[in-house]
Amino acid sequence: MSNAMEFKKGKIHDVIVKPLGKYLDERGWLAELFRADELDAGIMPVMAYISMTQPGVARGPHEHVEQTDYFCFIGPSNFKVYLWDRRKDSPTYGVKQVVYTGVDLPMMMVVPPGVVHAYKNVGIDNGIVFNGPNKLYAGEGKKLPVDEIRHEEAVGSPFVLD
């Protein structure tokens, strides 16, 4: 892929963005992160982890060759999520999508392989992100190479966060 590639704004095919429903009562709130009866078997999480990202800090951009990520942005901060479709066989090849999410609008987001992604904490608090990928990190027993192509430090990368 040429570093000179330019992306146009739009929505990326196969990326799923869905608000998380909050069930409120006098104790607070609850949100279902995923349900097996609502997910395609191909994106069903096989592991789960959470990460905390400090205000002003970004994670990514990177992409996966085979792994689908199943993110939930829940707060207590807000995030700007960047997505770039570099799948040559995709109807949205060359599209960049930006999504704002977090405490103000909790979201679930499915990011398929070949879609470069990054997120930045744009709030003032530490932010928590849940991820339930459909592949084990480093494979069974952590014995395989990690399925990740990192673009964070690539000189001239077209995957720029603002």
Q: Could you explain the architecture of this structure?
A:
One of its GO terms (cellular component) is cytosol. The protein is mainly β. It is built from no helices and 13 strands. The strands form three sheets. It has a six-stranded mixed beta sheet with strand order 1-9-8-11-6-13, with no helix packed on it. A five-stranded antiparallel beta sheet has the order 2-10-7-12-5, with no helix packed on it.
Shape: globular
- Please tell me the total number of domains: 1
Which band does the percent of strand residues land in?
A: 35-45%
Provide a count of the helices: 0
Largest sheet features: 6 strands, mixed
Strand order of the largest sheet: 1-9-8-11-6-13
Rg estimate, integer Å: 16 Å
Considering the protein shown, what is the CATH homologous superfamily?
Answer: Jelly Rolls
Please write the CATH class name.
Answer: Mainly Beta
How far apart lie the N and C ends?
A: 22 Å
Number of DSSP-assigned strands? 13
Name the poorly predicted regions: none
Give the SSE order as H and E letters.
EEEEEEEEEEEEE
The CATH topology corresponds to: Jelly Rolls
Which structural class fits the helix and strand makeup? mainly beta
Helical residues, percent: under 10%
Mean of residue pLDDT values: 95
CATH-scheme architecture: Sandwich
List the keywords.
162 residues, mainly beta, Jelly Rolls, six-stranded mixed β-sheet, five-stranded antiparallel β-sheet, globular
